[in-house]
Amino acid sequence: QVQLVESRGGLVQAGGSLRLSCAASGRTFSDYAMGWFRQAPGKERDFVAGINWSGVSTYYAGSVKGRFTISRDNAKNTVYLQMNKLKPEDTAVYYCAADWARSMVVRTISREYDFWGQGTQVTVSS
């Protein structure tokens, strides 16, 4: 089992920035690719960003590319999501997830991830 705990989200004005973190425990963190997903009320859970086990490979949803940055620190068992130029449409519950995969591949489909955090609310006001 891998336990994932996201940092507290928050309320931010449009155009602002916020950094989320997700701390992992339980198994070897570097055995996992990591992803961030989000779910707005009444909508499906969507892929936001992913990073492979070493941090060399990243992938972003088109809606966040150029504004969000995913990174990881394997020594600290933590993955981060830096969110800049936030928009009201970024409002959602954000989840981090772990995918047991030691490759260059970053997967974007939620069912391919093995473990999930509890989620954290991010609200962007206009």
Describe this structure in words.
This protein has strands at 3-6, 10-13, 18-25, 32-39, 45-51, 58-60, 68-73, 78-83, 92-100, 115-116, 120-125. With 126 residues, the chain is mostly beta strands. Strands 2, 4, 5, 6, 9, 10 and 11 form a seven-stranded mixed beta sheet that branches.
Instruction: Give the count of helical stretches.
Output: 0
Strand composition percent: over 45%
**Roughly what is the average pLDDT, rounded to an integer?**
96
Largest sheet: 7 strands, mixed
First-residue to last-residue Cα separation: 39 Å
The helical percent reads under 10%
- How many strand units? 11
What radius of gyration results from the CA coordinates?
Answer: 13 Å
Weakly predicted, low-confidence segments: none
Overall geometry comes to globular
Which class of secondary structure composition applies to the elements?
A: mainly beta
H/E topology pattern: EEEEEEEEEEE
Keywords:
126 residues, seven-stranded mixed beta sheet, four-stranded antiparallel beta sheet, 11 strands, globular
